[in-house]
Amino acid sequence: MGEVYRAHDARLGRDVAVKVLPSSFSSDSDRLRRFEQDARAAGVLNHPNILAIYDVGTHDGSPYVVSELLEGETLRNRLGGTSSSRKSVEYAIQIAQGLAAAHEKGIVHRDLKPENLFITRDGRVKILDFGLAKLTEPQFAGAPQTDAPTVPLDADTGPGVVMGTAGYMSPEQVRGQRVDHRSDVFSFGAILYEMLTGRRAFHRESAVETLNSILKEDPPEFPETSRSIAPGLERVVRHCLEKNPEERFQSARDLAFDLEALSGVSVPSAAQAAVALQPVRWKPVALWSLAVLTVLMMGLAGWWAWDKSDRPSVPQPVRVNRLTDFAGLEEFPAISPDGKSVAFTADTDGRRQIWVRLLAGGAPLQLTRDPGDHQFPRWSNDSTSLIYYSPPTEAESQGVIWEISAYGGTPRRIAGSLADGDLSHDGKQIAFLRFNNGQAEVVTSARDGSNLRIVTPLVTGFIYRHLRWSPDGKWIGFQRDRVFEDDLFIVPAGGGEPRQITQDGNLLSGYAWL
């Protein structure tokens, strides 16, 4: 849309890009509206992954926009060549971060596609062309306070009007429904699928067939040639491409968080593995030298061990890293099985919510945002979801165990429970406590709450909590409490009599299997 010229800003001594709409098109209200909207939307944003706008104006009847000058190529051109999955993830993180900045200003792009993503020569990704952008929450000075679903100038792109590019539109766009930031998440997923596989997620013989596939079909499985892609990346793509917006990532910030967590786990390709496994051929002289050096080193090591054996060992300093700095109470930390994240609860507004933070750094991600009080997060075996416990409320006579994606989203109710539960180490079963006809019971079920099975009934008059599976899945531990009198028990997971482990009745604040 329009023509772009390279120019020099003599006042600031920099080269810039000038985008001009020819005067002959000024009478085209639709083109003029999109041109002005592009400038307005990008103008309120200030982010390294969004094209910077410096000035707007009109010259001899032709509107123009002055922006930073970009040198490089569009993502569409880059997709024609070869790119590693690691590089694709690096680009994807930048795109997600740029989208997050736009969404936090209330701006939805609505036309995200490879042609609107520019990669500079130094590897920086820039989001271009906000000509179809929609403002969901006016957040800049002078913006009218209105419930209209679009930028005020964009009067023709409300519900019932299909806007976007076939192949990258969300299902709600295809239906002409009202859209929000999660529509961009879907478009992002289609782009990431193409970046990783080299194929379009939704591409048919005609635009109508393409739009129909967006509504009714899932993208093909990743091809065999994509084996070098970390499995977690395909899960991220599928999560973005959920038909129901409620089941996608709920924010681009959450999406960027998950991609950052996966950015260092790419599986080496077969070619890389072959290079790594090539044998080293030693010359005879080198082998003799190595043998002599090995004998000398073993002798020195033996002498050092003998000489130091009667000396007290010096304790090594322990480094403590602070992970959170909330003003409220933070409790129940749980390290993910892959060792990359920690889940915890934080009481920032009078109710505990579930949070996740990367151990490597970054801002914590809030998973739950409802009025409930949530406790005891426990990870799934693949580190992609958590279960947690919510105590009884006016609406629930028992507490409830929920499951939620580690990336956020809508929690799924699993079962009513008297206390916190636990996932088995293979991720297939959940152990929890239920109250049945006046009797407390340890029970297990499938992960979705089906196939309920009683493990053991429990003696009345006590409080029971903290069920924990043993690593081999053969036992379930639990804590039995009475006032100032706590003890630990285990019971066979297949059913049987509980076995008391501690006999002293001392106060217990928790335990863990080794």
Strand content is 25-35%
CATH architecture identity of the largest domain: Orthogonal Bundle
- Main pleated sheet: 4 strands, antiparallel
Q: Domains counted in the coordinates: how many? A: 3
Provide structural commentary.
This protein has 514 residues and is α+β, with helices and mostly antiparallel strands. The chain folds into three domains: 3-68, Phosphorylase Kinase, domain 1; 72-145 and 160-220 and 229-265, Transferase(Phosphotransferase) domain 1 (Transferase(Phosphotransferase), domain 1, Orthogonal Bundle); 329-500, Neuraminidase (6 Propeller), CATH 2.120.10. Helices cover 24% and strands 27% of the residues. Helix 3 (85-104) packs antiparallel against helix 5, helix 3 (85-104) packs antiparallel against helix 8 and helix 7 packs antiparallel against helix 8.
In short:
The chain has 514 residues and is α+β, with helices and mostly antiparallel strands. It is built from ten helices and 25 strands.
List keywords for this structure.
25 strands; four-stranded antiparallel sheet; 3 domains; 514 residues; Transferase(Phosphotransferase), domain 1; alpha+beta; Phosphorylase Kinase, domain 1; Neuraminidase; 10 helices
Q: What is the element layout, followed by pairings?
A:
Layout: E1 3-9, E2 14-20, H1 29-43, E3 53-59, E4 62-68, E5 72-74, H2 75-79, H3 85-104, E6 107-108, E7 117-120, E8 125-127, E9 134-135, H4 171-174, H5 181-197, H6 207-216, H7 231-240, H8 252-262, H9 270-276, H10 284-308, E10 329-335, E11 341-347, E12 352-358, E13 365-366, E14 375-379, E15 385-390, E16 399-405, E17 412-417, E18 422-423, E19 429-436, E20 439-446, E21 453-457, E22 463-469, E23 475-482, E24 485-492, E25 499-500
Antiparallel strand pairs: 1-2, 2-4, 3-4, 5-7, 6-9, 7-8, 10-11, 11-12, 12-13, 14-15, 15-16, 16-17, 18-19, 19-20, 20-21, 22-23, 23-24, 24-25
